[in-house]
Design a protein that fits this description.
Shape: globular
Order of helices and strands: HHEEEHEHHEEHEEHEHEH
Number of domains: 1
Structural class: alpha/beta
Largest sheet: 8 strands, mixed
CATH superfamily: Zn peptidases
CATH class: Alpha Beta
Number of helices: 9
Length: about 300
């Protein structure tokens, strides 16, 4: 009997020793994976501005950062550009060239900036997208009394005369008559004569765009004006570039605007978008339907189609 107790004691001690050994020294199975913590819900839309969550910084689009200044106006206001994406192909969106007269194009430009900030994943990895929401900051300030961001309430009640006066830069030059395509010192706008400047690119706003194009060589450009409600191809003498025709039709189909081969309501001299064509850059003018709506949804559809066009 005594021997049985001894054997049982030895067995118990052995079992305890083995259990302690594997409990204290054994490493986890290398195939084991710790369960992932639940993902935080995505924050979209207006909540982006109010969320207190710490979110990763957006990767800078280029060595310019996410925001840069491409030049200054006649009165010294910065002409801001916003950059999205990190691709090697540059495309450009420009609005606000006619300041306060076409204030809704500038407002659309800021809405596009906000949209791209909130939805960076819609930009193809091959692209860097530059948005210039206000090319004529002096003209816009003449109407809104603000620098940069504004709302439609800032221009409510403004007279037509006040809007017309806000079309020009501080030199009373129509910037869209100051580019080197069929330039003339005196241009036409509707039924009136306007100044095209003392020479092509005499105005700092036009010089800023020329420098930007020379430096970054955008593959294609969209510019917004108001108001006719259509998409217009560009050309500077000769025929329309085939890629411009393709872009005109594509944007019109996606957005619901009508496509036009040319703007022929009156002679255009020194037109910016036509100058882009002279530089062999496919470019279109998108004219909003009126002087008060931004038609953001229609233009979002057009821009998404534009992105696909730019990477093909």
């Amino acid at each position: 009997m005594k021997n049985i107790y001894i054997v049982l004691t030895v067995v118990v001690i052995a079992i305890v020793a083995v259990y302690a050994y594997f409990t204290l020294t054994d490493s986890p199975d290398p195939s084991f994976e710790r369960p992932l913590a639940p993902e935080a819900p995505l924050v979209t839309g207006p909540e982006l501005a109010t969320s207190t969550e710490t979110t990763p910084e957006i990767v800078e689009a280029t060595d310019r950062g996410t925001e840069s200044t491409i030049g200054t106006s006649e009165n010294g206001a910065d002409i801001k550009a916003y950059h999205f994406g990190t691709g090697s192909t540059e495309v450009t969106l420009i609005s606000g060239i006619h300041g306060g007269y076409s204030w809704n194009t500038a407002l659309l430009g800021f809405e596009i900036v906000d949209w791209l900030k909130a939805n960076p994943n819609i930009i193809p990895e091959e692209l860097t997208v530059t948005v210039i929401p206000v090319l004529n900051p002096d003209g816009l300030r003449t109407l809104t009394k603000k620098d940069g961001r504004f709302t439609s309430s800032d221009v409510s009640g403004a007279s037509e005369a006040a809007k017309v006066a806000a079309r020009f830069n501080a030199n009373t030059v129509d910037i869209n008559r100051n580019f080197a395509c069929d330039w003339s010192a005196t241009g036409t706008w509707q039924s009136r004569s306007v100044s095209g400047g003392t020479a092509a690119f005499s105005e700092p706003e036009a010089k800023a765009i020329r420098s930007y194009v020379d430096t970054y060589s955008p593959k294609a450009i969209i510019t917004w004006y108001s108001s006719q409600g259509g998409v217009y191809a560009s050309k500077c003498g000769g025929a329309i570039l085939p890629k411009t025709t393709e872009l005109t039709n594509l944007y019109a189909k996606a957005s619901g605007y009508t496509a036009y081969a040319e703007y022929d309501y009156y002679d255009l001299t020194g037109d910016m978008v036509n100058w882009f064509a002279s530089e062999n850059i496919p470019a279109i003018s998108v004219l909003l339907t009126n002087h008060s709506e931004t038609e953001l949804i229609k233009n979002q559809a057009g821009i998404l189609a534009f992105f696909k066009y730019a990477i093909e």
